[in-house]
């Protein structure tokens, strides 16, 4: 069994981080340049970490599968980033952001980590502004804010509908500066395909150059994974097509525990699916819920009528009706489930019946079309491009879609996994969002981890490693990992079957969406646990991966990622099956209150489930980290 | 949603690797749904090629919503296709009709060599960025974010420039393969903000010199770049950069910058 020591520092919640920073081991400045750190990923988490670690004097090598660090999936984040600045004087504070996040996560996150996140949130905004991130401003020149779901204050900073882009370009510019100063060796088009463990510690990676096909070994004193979320296991999602789980999955197979894999966020406001050819689902930012009102017709018979012809009295603004105090700004899991319910009742709109209206007519009446355009113009444009409909005139049609992974690699307070020397940042780890993430909190977490946490905590580990003691890349462990990578490639190219990779990805996605999506139950999960291994077996018999390993081969890239998804999907279902409660995004139909709300079981499930690989064909081990709440009292979440 | 499907013919640039000869190959795309994106249409063609035992067409893409700057198709001679203000991934098949022939090529520009088929190497942009496209702000040393108010108009203009997605359509659209719009967008974004003032001169000098050194051509004011830009970034920023550059050269003549400001 893996040892899960969360290393939460002692003392009062509000003192822990300060004390920890004062107590942990430091690496002396002259020694820093003797340590080599590998950072995999250059999204918000990876780019901020690589830049900051190199500023401290460490030697950093950064790897991305993209052709440039600027293209990480973080670029697509639209709505904003939270911070407890209380610039609006509306009663926000570190404690309130902390509390909202813990409650939003349905009491399944680690209190101490979340408190630290709220604390450093204020520094993030300062840092980004100093880098030149052009956040929205008021006429007086001060920073503007908007509201996001699950909060009753305005604490979200934004740059039009392109906040992730601007934050990433800020981190990318810091990284570019570090590259030009020689502090970071940047490797683009380089996909990490295995983690190397020497003497129980993470000491390197094996990488395939996606352009030349060359496989290389890289050794280091510590390895940082900031490789993003695994939501594409569902195939259709709001993620970029390239986002994948391979880095963390291969780390899992080397012994790193995978925490709460079934906690996957389904975002309520996305453009509905239209056809089988569809490759991705597009998010319509949650910020739209500041001014848009969500409704469906009260009567089934009205669902295909033009929305404008349905009288006010015949509309059901169901979020405002059920959750009067949060209304359209209730958390994502709650809003998604409510949408599913009204569609299940046969009141869903659009041809497929899988859609609800997001209506701006009231806001346009109140503020004028120009003001609405100023706030959300680019989102209305995106909507128009995709659907060919004008949302200034007719309500948008939206439906929930897979959007984010709260689960990920288990990490301790230092963001180190159970493998010493392996750190995991950003969406790839599990720690801060519990069973549901609040909007605008992922960007905050990625940058908190990279700019303000890892630069301190990695020293605590490195100080235990003698400078210059890392093993060379010709050690047998490296050779074994390289051979593992080559063997997977050979096997994928060798099947030469009849079906394209996309076929398996689509089928896996359908199984997961049906049985491990917005509602889950025992029978369905057991069915999925039979279907997925069968699909995996079929994959290895009949997948067709054309081309060779010696050049750019996009089919091969995708095949490797889908092969990993076919294993991860099973773990998702296993985790969902064993968590016999409902919490946040994880809605087990067997565990609900009469009004359909989540029924948590704190007596038996107030813990993190951290899965440990036990070998091929062997059931993984379910380790448990109990969640102890000192400052917050666990209660039934109420947004009514 | 429209449902009637149709057929088109694609003439696609196929090239096995860098520096190798390429040629156009014809493919039939059948059963095209008007609501498909252009890239989804290519996905379907690629799956058919795979089933026939042929190598699929390599093309770059990721976010598929016009923000990451990865997709980079020249469609019927136009970078990012027929419509202004969108990226290739935001081009939908409803722009075409049954029987159309569509020519698909990579972005064509000397500083963007072809890697394979429709995929090009645009790392030159990263090099320009590394030369000076940043504000030096060591983590942890920033003042409070509201300590220096910035007029909304200034912040908005900086944001107009900052929207650049780094796709390179501006270069591909320009007969001189000029990268002026890309560089001007970055220089203007940072140079407009008070935080960007200390490094303003060295930034513009270093970025422009690096751009020239990488083989991008000069600007002859045709403004094809702005027209092809998926974010419709205004060519006014080029004029702004030219002024910045001239001032920086002038000032450098009297107060020489340290040697490391070049970056070529
Ligand atoms: C459409 C959309 C909108 C969003 N909007 C918001 C928002 O408004 N506010 C908010 O807070 N959050 C938002 N999110 C969530 C947020 O964007 C992400 O959670 C966050 O950006 C993830 O950042 P990251 O650094 O962890 O990973 P990513 O940005 O995904 O970066 C991953 C990096 O890892 C690299 N990588 C991955 N695997 C490998 C490998 N095997 N080898 C080498 N490199 C690898 C990639 O190249 C990339 O550089 C949104 C998400 C989506 C999908
Ligand atoms: S794929 Fe990201 S901009 Fe087109």
Overview of this structure, please?
The complex is a heterodimer of chains A (640) and B (264). Chain A is of the alpha+beta class and 640 residues long. Chain A contains 17 helices and 19 strands. In chain A, strands 5-2-1-9-17 form a 5-stranded parallel sheet. In chain A, 61% of the residues are buried. With 264 residues, chain B is α+β, with helices and mostly antiparallel strands. Chain B folds into 2 domains: 6-116, Ubiquitin-like (UB roll) (Roll), CATH 3.10.20.30; 123-261, Orthogonal Bundle (Fumarate Reductase Iron-sulfur Protein, Chain B, domain 2), CATH 1.10.1060. In chain B, 34% of the residues lie in helices and 14% in strands. Chains A and B meet through helix 3, helix 5, helix 6, helix 11 and helix 12 of A and helix 1, helix 2 and helix 3 of B. FE2/S2 (inorganic) cluster binds next to loops of chain B. The site of FE2/S2 (inorganic) cluster has 13 residues of chain B, from loops.
Which stretches of chain B are poorly predicted, pLDDT < 50 over at least 5 residues?
none
Order of helices and strands of chain B: EEHEEEEEHHHHHHH
User: Level of helix content of chain A?
Assistant: 25-40%
CATH superfamily (homologous) name of one domain in chain A = Fumarate reductase/succinate dehydrogenase flavoprotein-like, C-terminal domain
CATH superfamily of the largest domain in chain B: Alpha-helical ferredoxin
Q: In the residues of chain B, how many domains can be counted? A: 2
């Amino acid at each position: 069994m893996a040892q899960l020591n969360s290393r939460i520092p002692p003392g009062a919640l509000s003192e822990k981080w300060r004390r920890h920073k004062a107590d942990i081991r430091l690496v002396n400045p002259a020694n820093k340049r003797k340590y080599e750190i590998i950072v995999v990923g250059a999204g918000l988490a990876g780019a901020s970490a690589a830049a900051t670690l190199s500023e401290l004097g460490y030697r950093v090598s950064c790897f991305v599968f993209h052709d440039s660090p600027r293209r990480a999936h973080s670029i697509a984040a639209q709505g904003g980033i939270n911070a407890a600045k209380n610039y609006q004087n509306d009663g926000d504070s570190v404690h309130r952001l902390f509390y909202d996040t813990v409650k939003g996560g349905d009491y399944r996150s680690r209190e101490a980590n979340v408190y630290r996140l709220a604390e450093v949130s204020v520094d993030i905004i300062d840092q980004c502004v100093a880098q030149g991130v052009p956040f929205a401003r008021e006429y007086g020149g001060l920073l503007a804010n908007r509201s996001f779901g699950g909060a009753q204050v305005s604490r979200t900073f934004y740059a039009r509908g392109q906040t992730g882009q601007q934050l990433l370009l800020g981190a990318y510019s810091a990284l570019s500066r570090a590259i030009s100063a020689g502090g970071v060796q940047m490797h683009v088009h380089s996909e990490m395909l295995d983690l190397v463990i020497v003497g129980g510690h993470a000491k390197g990676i094996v990488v395939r150059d996606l352009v030349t096909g060359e496989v290389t070994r890289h050794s280091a004193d510590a390895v940082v994974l900031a490789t993003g979320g695994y939501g594409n296991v569902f195939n259709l999602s709001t993620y970029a097509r390239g986002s994948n789980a391979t880095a963390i999955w291969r780390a899992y197979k080397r012994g790193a525990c995978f925490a709460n894999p079934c906690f996957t966020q389904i975002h309520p406001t996305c453009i509905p699916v239209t056809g089988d050819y569809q490759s991705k689902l597009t998010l319509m930012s949650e910020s739209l819920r500041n001014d848009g009102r969500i409704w469906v017709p009260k009567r089934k018979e009205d669902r295909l009528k033009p929305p404008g012809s349905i009288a006010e009295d015949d509309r059901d603004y169901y979020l405002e009706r059920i959750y009067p105090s949060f209304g359209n700004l209730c958390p994502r899991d709650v809003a998604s489930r409510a949408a599913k319910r009204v569609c299940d009742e046969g009141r869903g709109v659009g041809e497929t019946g899988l859609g609800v209206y997001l209506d701006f007519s009231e806001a346009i009446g109140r503020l004028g079309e120009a003001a609405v355009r100023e706030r959300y113009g680019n989102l209305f444009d995106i909507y128009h491009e995709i659907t060919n409909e004008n949302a200034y005139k007719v309500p948008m049609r939206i439906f929930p879609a897979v959007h984010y992974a709260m689960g990920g690699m288990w990490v301790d307070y230092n963001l180190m996994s159970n493998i010493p020397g392996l750190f995991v940042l950003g969406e790839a780890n599990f720690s801060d969002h519990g069973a549901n993430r609040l909007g605008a909190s992922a960007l905050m977490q990625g940058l908190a981890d990279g700019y303000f946490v890892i630069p301190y905590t990695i020293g605590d580990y490195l100080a235990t490693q003698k400078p210059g003691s890392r093993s060379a890349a010709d050690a047998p462990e490296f050779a074994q990992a390289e051979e593992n990578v080559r063997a997977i490639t050979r096997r994928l190219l060798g099947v030469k079957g009849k079906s394209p990779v996309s076929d398996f990805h689509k089928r896996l996605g359908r199984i997961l969406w049906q049985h491990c999506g917005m509602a889950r139950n025992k029978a369905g999960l057991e069915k999925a646990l039979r279907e997925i291994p069968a699909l995996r077996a079929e994959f290895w018999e009949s997948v067709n991966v054309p081309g060779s390993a010696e050049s750019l081969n996009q089919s091969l890239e995708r095949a490797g990622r889908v092969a990993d998804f076919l294993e991860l999907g099973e773990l998702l279902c296993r985790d969902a099956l064993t968590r016999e409660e409902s919490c946040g995004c994880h809605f087990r139909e067997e565990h609900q209150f009469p009004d359909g709300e989540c029924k948590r079981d704190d007596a038996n499930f107030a813990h993190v489930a951290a899965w440990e690989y036990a070998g091929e064909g062997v059931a993984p081990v379910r380790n448990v980290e109990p969640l102890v709440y000192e400052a917050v009292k666990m209660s039934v979440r109420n947004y009514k | 949603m429209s449902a009637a499907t149709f057929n088109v013919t694609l003439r696609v640039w196929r090239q096995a690797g860098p520096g190798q000869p390429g040629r156009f190959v014809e493919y039939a795309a059948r059963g095209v749904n008007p609501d498909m994106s252009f890239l989804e249409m290519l996905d379907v063609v690629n799956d058919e090629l795979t089933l026939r035992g042929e190598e699929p067409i390599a093309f770059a893409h990721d976010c598929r919503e016009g923000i990451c700057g990865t997709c980079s198709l020249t469609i019927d001679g136009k970078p990012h296709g027929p419509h202004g203000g969108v990226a290739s991934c935001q081009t939908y098949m409803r722009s075409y009709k049954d029987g159309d022939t569509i020519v698909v090529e990579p972005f064509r520009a000397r500083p963007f060599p072809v890697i394979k088929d429709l995929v090009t190497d645009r790392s030159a942009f990263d090099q320009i960025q590394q030369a000076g496209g940043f504000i030096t702000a060591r983590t942890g040393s920033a003042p409070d974010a509201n300590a220096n108010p910035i007029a909304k108009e200034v912040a908005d203009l900086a944001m107009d420039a900052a929207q650049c997605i780094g796709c390179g359509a501006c270069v591909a659209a320009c007969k001189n393969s000029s990268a002026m719009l890309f560089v001007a967008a970055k220089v203007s974004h940072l140079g407009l903000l008070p935080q960007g003032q200390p490094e303003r001169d060295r930034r513009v000098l270093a970025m422009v010199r690096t751009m020239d050194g990488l083989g991008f051509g000069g600007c002859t004011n045709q403004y094809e770049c702005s027209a092809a830009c998926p974010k419709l970034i205004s060519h006014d920023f080029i004029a702004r950069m030219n002024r910045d550059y001239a001032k920086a050269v002038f000032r450098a003549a009297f107060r020489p910058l340290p040697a490391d400001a070049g970056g070529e």
